[in-house]
Amino acid sequence: MRPIVGAVAIGLMLAAAVFAWQQQGGAQQQVGFVYSNASTPGGIAQSAGPPQIPSCSSVGLPPGPQCDQLIARAREAYQNEINAMKAQAAAAKLLVQLAVVQQNPAGAGLMAASLMASVVGAIAIFLLAAAHFGGEWTGGTMAAVLSQDGRRWRLVAGKFVSLFLLAQGLLLVTWVFLAALSLLFRAAYPLDGPSPLSIGDGFAIAGPAVLRSCLVTAAYCALGVLAAVMTRNTLGTLLLATGGLLAWLMLETLPSIATLSIGYWISGWMGFTDAGFSSGQVMWGVPPGMTPSATIGFLALLALIPAAGAISAARFQRLDIAA
Amino acid sequence: MSGVDLEVDEAQIVGLVGPNGAGKTTILKMVLGLVRPTSGEIFIFGTRAPCPAVLQAAGSMVDRPAFYPWLTARANLSVLLDGGPPGPPHAVERALELVALTGDADRQVKTFSQGMRQRLGMAAALMRKPRLLILDEPANGLDPAGIRDLRRLILDVSAEGTTVLLSSHLLAEVERICDWVAFISGGTITETRKMSDLRSATRLRVSVPTSQSAQALAILAAHGPVVVGDGVFVVGGLPGAEVARLLSRAGIFADTVEPERDSLEDVYLKAVDSAEAVGG
Questions:
Q1: How many CB atoms lie within 10 A of CB B193?
Q2: What is the pTM of this model?
Q3: Reported ipTM exceeds the 0.90 cut
């Protein structure tokens, strides 16, 4: 096993521990609010108090369009305040739900899958791609490897498959680590209110997320392989893959083409939302005002993998293997 | 590269020699399919290369031998073996034994000296019992004993029917083991020589008393004697006994009549000088 694999696994486990720990701390602060009357629609209305809608006489305006406009603005501001409080309550509820899932050894797979589908997982896979494929050029082993079997497409496919298997291994290791932590979290951050999940419930929640993350990690592997073929060295692979991914994410800031962003696709496919805390949401911005489509995400990611693979194979086929 | 025209018979050892940057490694890489020629064709055992099936019959060591430093010698060979079609039984063990690395098989390659890496590179090249062995500067980093062992190894595999194509700066080694030598200069094969012809192309170095030097030169004038010292000259195209007979008839008794031939280095340097002269 390459030494970098162990280092990446440790890095992922540390990142997972930090996110899970933050989640637990936040959930414990919010659990009282979530399981109180204050988070219900009635409680929110009560907290906001009666709407402070001024009258025309109270602001010294004669009845008419100008006064009507002022009153409409005041109503809108009140409604916005109510909506913000509702969103805050929903986010707090989601945070507590995720914390409950995280306190279940099987449910901890949700965090592991989200992490692998996030930018953190992407960078972990790009690091592996850099060492595993880009390193064949840097270390000078490419000529020896290709001399064993000249079918270059086979090497590209082999690198992709081995990277994908490594990524799933990392997910599994992170899941096991978080599962062990879940027992500590349950003792350290007891959540009064929500019922703990059964192991079956935990698998039912984590399982689909883990399966969905496979498609995302496969896309990362394909991008990592492509970056390796384009740059033909370790550092170049990491920089091109990470830089390219971040640049691609930037498309989200342009509403007209936000649906072309890989962040949109992954958010849609993984079900990352803007309404709560998840490791995925921390790392992926959901395009403002958009609800990413799972179908578009699935189809786009599914198309990305063979496209990147075909470009990699075609480029690699024409390359001269220098010293 | 241009004008690279080389035909190698099976079970022959062919050496590519030429100055740095002449294109020796590039030719070997083209044969292995690592570098794509823009024009021209390469056939290996009658099949147009690059062809995976043909490549599987070739063992190679090009550039400096590179391995995964954190793996042991045995694991490195296993990884390479797994990267292609199945090799012969006990391929790794046999290859390690051939290069005398069995005792170090379980050491990480990062602890290996340059010479040991070179030997491991040879093991990787020989692992599949190749029909064609391609070696780029195989003696790099080897000590004299290692070079001797390498020479024996190459001669042994050649005797078993393996065709060997190698490049080397060690002209004395090329001269000792190769059947053919090809000179490369500026990306072109300028000359191909059969080593047996080179070895048999001898001249005579004749040494006579200084006082009889002029007379001896006159007697042998028809054979183009070249004076190389006082009373010492070189003649070609005559057997030694004939030289002795001609001189003795005139009462000249040669001190020595010794065969002399060009070394590969002489031929190589002449070829390089000639190529440079043509190139301007």
A1: 18
A2: 0.84
A3: no
